Amino acid sequence: MKKPSLMLLAWMLLGLAGCSSLPNTPAPAPAFEPDAQALAAEAERVRQVHSQLDWGFAGRVAVSNGRDGGNGRLDWQQGGGGFQARLSAPVTRQGWELSMDFASGQARLDGLAGGPRQGSDARALVQQSTGWDLPVATLGDWVRGVLDGQAQVQARDAAGRPLRAEQDGWQVQFGQWYEAEPGRPALPRRIDAVNGQARVRLLVDQWMGWEQ
Q1: Burial degree of 43 (CB within 10 A; 0-12, 13-18, 19+)
Q2: 54 vs 52: CA distance, rounded Å
Q3: Whole-prediction pTM value?
Q4: 49 to 43, 75, 138, 183, 185: CA distances (angstroms)
Q5: CATH number, position 106
Q6: How many CA atoms does the CB half-sphere of 52 hold within 13 Å?
Q7: How many structural domains are present in the chain?
Q8: Is residue 30 in some structural domain?
């Protein structure tokens, strides 16, 4: 039986694919062999990122599963206790919201036909409920240019920041960066992630929560 939730998300994204579109994936930036000073600066940037517990961003996201795809708005709010991520159609504002409580390890997905759904694996919950494979468990790190110990960094830029990496089966490319400003370290502007036929492109339009 076809899931009503999959039909809802497909209509939301595919029916409005021409809205809030993202530019095509840029050519990979040239990789460098950063020196010790650059790597130390990158370690300090990561420390600053981790020290900011409450933050958020607003941006545009494009998803594809090899057959279907579309675009929408993504609003993300994160605090020390968890996060809320809302994907919405740019015109109707219909969509769904994923929330994660770090203490309990439970995720909740709202906005689906049939009511909310819960589970301990946020990525599996989204995929089973909507048919879309999204790296929601690690997206909060990637969007800040942070990789955990299991990630394999394949290339860095001259400042020591990651350009390409592999984590949890995803090939991640950090295409553009917002340079550091007073009260805010350098943060990615664009991320492209691929895992088989699943593709996610994210363009951050605005950062929130960083000291100005």
Answers
A1: exposed
A2: 6
A3: 0.82
A4: 10, 19, 15, 11, 7
A5: 2.50.20.10
A6: 24
A7: 1
A8: no
Residue 198 domain-assigned? yes
In a domain, 91, yes or no: yes
Let me know if residue 129 belongs to a domain: yes
Q: Write down the mean pLDDT value for the chain.
A: 84
Burial zone of 114 (CB within 10 Å; 0-12 exposed, 13-18 middle, 19+ buried) = exposed
Q: What is the pLDDT of residues 99-142, one digit of tens each?
A: 999 999 999 999 888 899 999 999 899 888 887 788 888 999 99
Residue 181 predicted with pLDDT over 80: yes
The pLDDT tens digits for 47-71 are 999 999 999 999 999 988 877 777 8
Containing structural domain, residue 8? 4-21+35-208
How far apart are alpha carbons 93 and 73 in whole angstroms?
A: 9
Nearest to 151 by CA among 117, 124, 174, 184: 174
Under DSSP, the state recorded for 196 is T
Other Cβ atoms within 10 Å of 71 Cβ, number: 22
Q: List pLDDT tens digits, range 7-27.
A: 334 434 433 343 345 556 565
